[in-house]
Amino acid sequence: MPAIDFLRRRWVELAWFAFAIANLLAMIRWQRWETIPFHFIWVSLTLVYGFRVWRHAATALTLGFVVLSTGVLILIDAVRGTQEWGELFEVPLMSAMFLAMVWHARRRQEALGIVEGHAAQLESLLERHERFVHDASHELRTPLTIARVQLEVLRRTDSRHGTELDVTVDELGRMERIVERLLLLARADQPDFVELEELDLEHFLEDVFMRWSEVAPRRWRLGVLARGNLRADPEQLRIALDALLENAVKYSEPGEGIELCSRAAGSEVVIEVSDEGTGVPEDALGRIFERFARVDAARSRANGGVGLGLAIVDTIVKAHGGRATVRRRGRGTVFSLYLPGLTNGSRILGTRSLARLDS
């Protein structure tokens, strides 16, 4: 019913109006003490307005009602001699304080409106961003995959253009990797980018190492490993470590060493990938995790990189609440991932290591 809806929406104003009438009656009944209910009316009006912020017309009518009713009562008592004439100055003073409250409350309301508008725009932008990621995942991956499969079939049946087809297939594979990495970076701000779970860190790193030790002819070494459970997203962490190991292979030569190790540092674990490759120049250490940052553009292009691998590492580690660092060691490079969430990580696998040399 309309009356019930009105009462639900305006019960605060109705309660205040009843409170104000009661205090006006108190001003009439106890004339010598009327300044107390007088201040009750004005203070309660200011408090209520701070929460409700009425429209201009309602504000003007309410202010006029309070000014007229309290002012008339004090004027009558001053004429009768029960109040000092100076008490009349309380009315314009309280009115000025109330108007100051009105100004601040409306400024705050306008600011909230601006914030809500920006929030709505941001939400709309995030929705469009999510739709883009979803559409791009399908629209970009599918034709690249189909083209690569068709060219691989053609390469097996056409021996006359084998070299050209090999280059084309490699370039399509490179494009697929670039698309995957761009989409991964595009998803980095979404809430479900990482899905944390408990994983056995030692076994996890051993599995990553064994896969890579079969890939490239390097002097692979599984160094000291910290034991314990790490709360992390295994898929995303594997992508980050794959990017570091791929980078180590890319900038090292056959026979040079690559080591994977980890150590506990309180509730953190530090996972390190080191190599004996060409190293990183000092002037590039501060920007190596930036997107599309490449130490040597010509060399990176020759090896198939566009400067996204290390940016992905940094993004994944930050999504876990950690950080990634890089430093030079001799002529090689050491990448360190600092990740929180290690439990039972004080014991260390101290003597066991796995060395592998593929010629």
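^ that was protein a. below is b, sequence first then the tokens
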Amino acid sequence: MIHYSSQEAARRLGISASALGNYIRDKKIPSPQSVTTGGITVYLWTEEEIEHVRQILPKIANGRKTRYQKLREKQEAQPEAVPHKSRNQRRSNSNQTAKG
């Protein structure tokens, strides 16, 4: 049976090794067999475990949100707003009432 390192498994999954480690730490994916030597834990990944994680990855909600995602969520939560008049429209309306 062939075993892969976390670096190789992450490369096969198309994510960074640190992201893979974070998912394991946060218990978002099951940890594979591990070996601890000198205080360093090395995970040994099999082909089946990598494929299992590949199936789980799309279901993991990424906790990081960009400002654009936050703005979209805020706009979706707000009720429909009435658009304002621009300054130019306000000035032209006030000029027309003064002339008329």
